[in-house]
Design goal:
It is built from 5 helices and 22 strands. The chain has 370 residues and is mostly beta strands. The strands form 4 sheets. Strands 1, 2, 3, 4, 5, 6, 7, 8, 14, 15, 19, 20, 21 and 22 form a 14-stranded mixed beta sheet that branches. It has a 3-stranded mixed beta sheet with strand order 10-13-12, covered by helices on one side. Strands 17-16-18 form a 3-stranded mixed beta sheet. The protein is globular, with a radius of gyration of 23 Å.
Length: 370
């Protein structure tokens, strides 16, 4: 195998390589990347049993020299029969503790603070550093931990209200993400050139003709009554040919501005999710030697599905098995992932005399963030 693609797991002062099976996954909408590595050797006479890696042990996972994951071993199962022994190691990023563990801040309430500062406080209880990659400073009137919720559930409520995403990086930090901030891929994904398989469900079951956001907020000396106890906003989508209404009941302190931004974002995000696709690519790296990464913009040219457009890599899995090394890339139009209501609905005009792809009537094919 190419030295740049050798997967190394570092634990307890040792580096382990020579894995026969590999899966390392990360995604824009996943709080924690995870991994599963396996090795099989003959038995008996296949050499000494390797040093055991303990569940809970701190690890680093690299592809070549690039740090891909910093976290902990979740499990280390061993299987054997009369012919072979199989050892597997699986684990998650450090941010996995936010998914598994309770929100324990005391006091568990914040007033008139930024989303970023509250997320940092929730994650800080478990030693997780937060990096704000969004470039946005959003204040929340009130956020209170709900009984029994995990740290990530509390964080997710905050980010959903603010239309932000959080993911992690190779160092195990929580990243408040800005879609596409990793940059544009050097290569395109092109049918007949580097796409091995393609899969698009084209599932429009979660796309609606009207989106309604409802919620409440606490009153003040200057704002009270119905204006605070009942907050509502609504937008329509004439791309949908029949009446379909989605009502979003929001928790937290909802304002008319937040409610309006939420429904505009929902309208854009629903179309993006409906146009999501998954591709398999031979290898883990582009032609310039750089790894494919999630949160990267890539041009997809696939006349079978009907794409010739910029897409956002929302999730990636690096895999090694009997078929060799390959990457599985999940992509979707990036417009629906923007934190601000930069809604492609308002820009969906075909170029004069040119049809870029089959779906430009829904979302423009060329991604132009504001």
């Amino acid at each position: 195998m190419d030295q740049s693609n050798i997967v190394t797991l570092s634990a307890g002062g040792y580096d382990y390589a020579g894995w026969k099976s590999v899966r390392i996954s990360a995604g824009l909408e996943r709080q924690a990347r995870d991994f599963e590595l396996g090795i099989t050797w003959s038995w008996p006479g296949g050499g000494d049993v390797p040093v055991r890696i303990k569940p809970g042990e701190a690890v680093e996972v690299r592809i070549g020299r690039e740090l891909i994951l910093t976290g902990y071993v979740s499990s280390a199962p061993v299987q054997y029969d009369g012919r072979a022994v199989t050892l597997s190691i699986s684990g998650k990023s450090r941010t996995g503790d936010l998914v598994d563990c309770a929100a324990i801040n005391t006091p568990g309430q914040w007033r008139a603070q930024s989303v970023q500062s509250i997320v940092a406080a929730l994650a800080g209880e478990y030693g997780i550093t937060v990096v704000d990659d969004s470039g946005l400073a959003q204040a929340i009137d009130d956020h209170t931990i709900e009984p029994g919720e995990t740290a990530f559930e509390s964080i997710d409520r905050l980010l959903t209200l603010s239309r932000l995403f959080s993911t992690d990086d190779g160092r195990g930090r929580l990243i408040i993400a800005s879609p596409g901030s990793v940059g544009r891929a050097a290569d395109r994904l092109v049918l007949g050139e580097n796409i091995l398989t393609g899969d698009a469900q084209m599932d429009f079951s979660n796309v609606f003709s009207q989106y309604v956001s409802k919620g409440q907020r606490s009153g003040t000396d200057t704002s009270f009554g119905v204006a605070t106890t009942e907050v509502e906003a609504s937008v329509s989508d004439d791309r949908i040919g029949r009446k379909r209404v989605k009502v979003i009941q929001q928790s937290g302190q909802l304002t008319p501005a937040i409610a309006r931004a939420r429904v505009v974002w929902e309208r854009a995000n629903a179309i993006s999710k409906a146009l999501a696709a998954t591709y398999k690519y031979q290898g883990w790296r582009q032609s310039n030697g750089e790894l494919w990464r999630h949160n990267m913009i890539v041009r997809v040219v696939d006349p079978i599905i009907g794409f010739d457009r910029d897409m956002l890599i929302t999730e990636i899995s690096y895999e090694l098995g009997e078929q060799g090394t390959f990457a599985t890339l999940s992509v979707a139009p990036p417009d629906g992932f923007l934190p601000e209501p930069n809604d492609a609905y308002e820009k969906r005009k075909l170029r004069k005399g040119k049809k870029t792809d089959n779906f430009e009537y829904l979302i423009p094919a060329d991604y132009k963030p504001s």
